[in-house]
Amino acid sequence: TLALRRSLQRLVPHGDGHTVMLVPGFTATDRAMGQLRRFLWNCGYEARGWGQGRNVGVSRERVDSLGQRLNDLVQ
After folding, report:
1. Cα dist from 1 to 5, 30, 35, whole Å
2. How many other CB atoms sit within 10 Å of the CB of residue 52?
3. How many whole angstroms separate alpha carbon 53 and alpha carbon 33?
């Protein structure tokens, strides 16, 4: 509910606009993280998804790609 969301926003330290990257849990996607991303945006953070589709587990390629995504967001 809106009242709960506003109460939670008061508890979260207000961001200064810096970027945070959200990594979805196993089998989830960036889309599943939409509400959390919007919540963090409303709290003053630039929340971004990991950009790798469905999280199907860890692999060397995925870790490398995640590192590249993080570097891109930092730039």
Report:
1. 6, 22, 12
2. 16
3. 12
